[in-house]
From TrEMBL:
Cellular component terms (Gene Ontology): ribosome
Keyword vocabulary terms for this entry: Ribonucleoprotein, Ribosomal protein
Family: Belongs to the universal ribosomal protein uL29 family.
Lineage: superkingdom: Bacteria
Gene giving rise to this polypeptide: rpmC
Protein name: Large ribosomal subunit protein uL29
Cross-referenced Gene3D superfamilies: 1.10.287.310
Amino acid sequence: MSYTELKEKSVKELQTLLADLKAELFSLRFKNATRQLDQVHKIQLVKKDIARTLTALNAKKEQGDK
């Protein structure tokens, strides 16, 4: 997901997306620990999406969009 797409979302949508991404990251890490994950690069992709989402969320909060 690109940052420009995230900038268009509301704070509520970003918070929901962040929760979903964190749950996905937990699942991927668990699968990796149990050797069930074949595509380990997906962990890095989800971590980058979380960082982008947090950046967009913090920018929205600074602007006062609630």
